Amino acid sequence: MLEQITSSFTTDGYWDLFWLVRNSVITAAVLGLMGGIIGIFIMLRRSGLVVHGIAEISFAGAALFLLAGLDVVAGSALGAVAAALLIGVLSLRDKDTSSVTAVLMPFGLGLGILFLHLYQGRSANRFGLLTGQIVGVDDLQTRTLVTGAVLISAVLILIWRPLMFASVDPQLAAARGVRTNLLTIVFMVLLGGAVAMSVQVVGALLVLALLVVPAAAALKVARRPAAVVLLSSVFAVTAAVGGIMIAIAGTVPISPYITTISFLIYVVCLLVGRRQRARMNSTTRRLTSSAS
Amino acid sequence: MTGPALRLHEAAVQFGARTLWSQVSFALQQGEFLAVLGPNGAGKSTFLKVLLGLQRLSSGTAEVLDRPVRRGSAEVGYIPQHHQLEPETPLRAKDVVGLGLEGHKYGIPWASRKARARVDELIEQVGAADYAHRPVGLLSGGEQQRLRAAQALAGDPALLLCDEPLHSLDLHHQRAITELIHAQSVHHGSAVVFVTHEINPVVRHVDRVLYFARGGHRIGTVAEVMRSEVLSELYQSPVEVIEHKGRLVVMSEHAEGDHHHA
Hints:
The structure holds two protein chains of two kinds.
Chain A: H1 2-7, H2 14-20, H3 22-44, H4 48-67, H5 72-90, H6 97-118, H7 128-131, H8 139-158, H9 160-168, H10 170-175, H11 180-202, H12 208-211, H13 213-221, H14 225-247, H15 254-291
Chain B: E1 6-15, E2 18-28, E3 33-37, H1 44-52, E4 59-64, E5 67-68, E6 76-79, H2 93-102, H3 113-125, H4 141-153, E7 159-163, H5 171-188, E8 191-195, E9 208-213, E10 216-220, H6 222-225, H7 228-235, E11 239-244, E12 247-252
Parallel strand pairs in B: 3-8, 3-9, 6-7, 7-8
Antiparallel strand pairs in B: 1-2, 1-4, 4-5, 9-10, 11-12
Helix pairs in contact in B: 2-3, 2-4, 3-4, 4-5
């Protein structure tokens, strides 16, 4: 198997190939940047599973649009935003997003399978949506994705302080007049949009690698908001762009490279974070013992 | 600022057919310290929610500085019950205080020089300078609670609402937080509404007590309210208040239980 992977690499005309997929690289980089900004909130609001749920339910939207003869990508985007909104509204009262997600996810997937079954044409080649299909992005798609990512990032920056307040200490934020429920809904819509776009890059199954893993890694080593955003953006861009650059030299699809790189980054951060904390603890101990 | 910090007039809260409390009328002067007592479910938290503008009165009025209470008022500071923040919270102590100052504002999240100076000042005021740059998730409960006090004092509030701020703190930190709150009322004239299960840690500072139980309430000085006959009438069952070495102990055979066991 290893031979199959290694023998598939060629370096001839690598940069020509790279030029061909430049749209994908740009898209991946911009989505990575957005992933860094939204990822910190996904982690703080413990919405990792929600991201996965939205991604899978977006597949139902895609399948429905396929059946109806409409644009599959638009269907997946609509499905993602609708799913996010539904999860947000249903969990407003008890804040338990993960059980709402766990309830909605099988239903959404079931619908997706039903729509595919009803579809008369060949659906197999449409499954790129589940595993990622970025190599095929054209100029128009690139523009749409970049615009979307910039828009989502801009809104997140403008609502940054109230959203951070509401995510870290919802009770206190509400007491200070922050509309926590409204922010939850706004955040879920943004999250739906972010997932819908990331699905285009790594596919519904692997969206977590772009939106959650980089932020989780950054939180292990950084303790300032700006540092977490910066690091997780760098991690996400590294994984996405790095994955594409390696993948075009071979025949293995892009997704495994992206997920592997992002996982390795996480492991490194985990180890670095442990060492940091051990060092901090020993400093505190020294300080206390010298003080007493 | 000449009028009372807080004024309630025939205030009542009902949930469906159930009246939580009613006919609450009193005014709290600047610098006055009010302890709010009562068993669980008597409406202490709802009382705070009313003052925060998060719960509407069923009837009557509630005014802070002669204006009806409203959500997110800068005139009202709030210290919640202590709850430990997540260890991985990506904020330093000073970032948390900054949220208390500007966390409700939309727009580019860039703190002005003035805002940063105010944060430093608040951190100094609550004695948190030693750990101002440490990650908040790694701080102890008492240290985190000091930061919440700093957040609440950010707007130099006319009314300071405290929701069992001493809960789950050790004695040392209980005293420190109490002193902070007291200092705010003395030096800045803030009126304090202090909801608690346990009056003893703050009894020295208390000017008046508002006691909720069984749909009724009593308000007055400690000596007026914390008496066996007054509380027995309020609970509609025998309650005994004993003073023991300067501590007030409320004893009852009441089935619902009383929470003032000292």
